[in-house]
TrEMBL record:
Domain of life: Bacteria
GO terms of molecular function: molecular carrier activity
Family of this protein: Belongs to the prokaryotic sulfate-binding protein family.
Alphabetized PROSITE patterns for the sequence: PROK_SULFATE_BIND_1
Originating species: Paenibacillus pini JCM 16418
Protein name in the entry: Sulfate-binding protein
């Protein structure tokens, strides 16, 4: 490595890998043009909780991207992130995400929105929320869709209860 060149270690949750694979080469090019420095990345991708535990335990990441607030809390507890991280201008978020409904080819059951997931014959497959940050976002999206249905608590919680009932598949 030439004098002044930079290596950054990235420890991120696994879903970020595809995006960073596209973004980092552009960043490298722009950084080189602006500073004259070559920047290299050492990358580690794991489940968000696994990555947070690794960093809290001594993995020296310069940059981290984590899926869940609780995982950032592990880094706060370890003294690696400021307690006021959510008070910053972007409130700790660099992106906004959406949950996408995937169907079998041709969408034979005509799924258009979350309410369709409660129709007879529809089975929902989603990751285990105990181990997947993405699954926790799925739960939040379903709950949010329920909130839009009514101001009455009993109605707005009906959608999540029906989707997560025992007739649906969770893996």
């Amino acid at each position: 490595m030439q004098n002044g060149d930079v290596t950054l270690v990235i420890g991120a949750y696994s879903v970020a890998k595809d995006a960073l694979t596209d973004i980092l080469p552009h960043f490298q090019k722009e950084w080189k043009e602006k500073t004259g420095q070559t920047i290299r990345f050492q990358q580690s991708y794991e489940a968000s909780g696994t990555q947070a535990r690794a960093i809290a335990g001594g993995f020296e990441a310069d940059v981290t991207l984590l899926a869940m607030e609780g995982d950032i809390g592990k880094l706060v507890k370890a003294g690696l992130v400021s307690k006021d991280w959510k008070q910053k201008p972007n409130k700790g978020m660099i992106t906004r995400s959406i949950v996408v409904l995937g169907t079998r080819e041709g969408n034979p059951l005509g799924i258009q929105d979350f309410t369709d997931l409660t129709n007879p014959g529809v089975k929902v497959l989603y990751p285990n929320p105990k181990t997947s940050g993405g699954a926790q976002w799925d739960i939040n999206a379903i709950y949010g869709a329920g909130l839009k249905m009514s101001e009455l608590r009993v109605i707005r919680t009906l959608l999540p209860r029906r989707i997560f009932s025992s007739k649906y598949i969770a893996t």
